[in-house]
Amino acid sequence: MSGKLSAASLASIKLDLAFQSKQLSSASGFFWKYGERLFLVTNWHVMSGRNALDNKCLDPNLALPDRLSAGVIQSAGGKLVTGSVQFEWKLGERTPWLIHPTYQSAVDVAMLDVSAVPLTGVLHFNENQDNTYMLMSGDDAFLLGYPLGLGVNKTPLWKRGTVASEPMMDVDGLPKFLVDTASTSGMSGSAVITKKTFGLLQNGQRSMGQHVTTLEGVYSGRVLEAGDLSAQIGIVWKASVLKEIADGGVYYTAD
């Protein structure tokens, strides 16, 4: 398979979580590079198998994931897909992944340092996002994930949403904002991006004609119960938490 593909798609990854040989769930994630370190980013509840609000086990049989696996796309020059490599990581009581240094699991984001894993040719989002446009309420946002485990040749589906809260404000005193979007299981851990060609830059200047794709955060699911369709509002953890976790994150330890 060859051709020009979105770099954001190539940085995204479908995750499969299992207990021993039993498949528990599928979710979404993405690669993010910080300095010389490469991280796999997803949600805390995906990696732990627990509800981030009450710490209860998400599996009806009380099984917690002990293995994460994924087919990782490799590319040449970020454009030509050369194939994929199977990626697997063992999970357990002493986990190798980081959580927020201050809010810990209250920020539903987990980051696994995969710098030592041979993932040649894997694309990633980068922490250096200079001259990006400011995120505004009402902006279109795209969730890059795998609803119900669906994707196309390991690339994610792009689901459109709208920034529903003022992104300059925190929600519930935590670094997150809300999006209006129809989502379903499998989307947890999706990269949330914007694609703009005009607007207000972070330096305060206005720009037109400059095409910029910006990583805005990590999607972690609906505010309300999945069966409640009265308000399709989802949570996005701000991209700023990624640097905070990379710089001072602590290893999660299962109770």
Q: Could you outline the blueprint of secondary structure elements for this entry?
A:
Blueprint: H1 7-10, E1 12-19, E2 22-34, E3 37-42, H2 44-48, E4 67-76, E5 80-90, E6 94-99, E7 110-113, E8 125-126, E9 140-145, E10 157-163, E11 176-180, E12 191-200, E13 206-222, E14 233-238, H3 240-248, E15 250-253
Parallel strand pairs: 2-8
Antiparallel strand pairs: 1-2, 1-4, 2-3, 3-7, 4-5, 6-7, 6-15, 9-10, 9-12, 10-11, 11-14, 12-13, 13-14
What's the β-strand tally? 15
Helix proportion of residues, in percent? under 10%
Q: What integer value in Å does the Rg equal?
A: 17 Å
The overall pLDDT average reads 86
Give the overall shape, derived from the CA principal axes.
globular
* H-E string: HEEEHEEEEEEEEEEEHE
Biggest sheet character: 9 strands, mixed
C-alpha termini separation: 45 Å
- pLDDT < 50 runs, ≥5 residues: none
Structural class: mainly beta
Tally of DSSP helical segments: 3
Strand content: over 45%
Task: Tell me what the structure shows.
- With 255 residues, the chain is mainly β.
- 7% of the residues lie in helices and 45% in strands.
- The strands form two sheets. Strands 1, 2, 3, 4, 5, 6, 7, 8 and 15 form a nine-stranded mixed β-sheet that branches. A six-stranded antiparallel β-barrel has the order 9-10-11-14-13-12.
- A hairpin with a 5-residue loop joins strand 12 and strand 13.
- The mean pLDDT is 86.
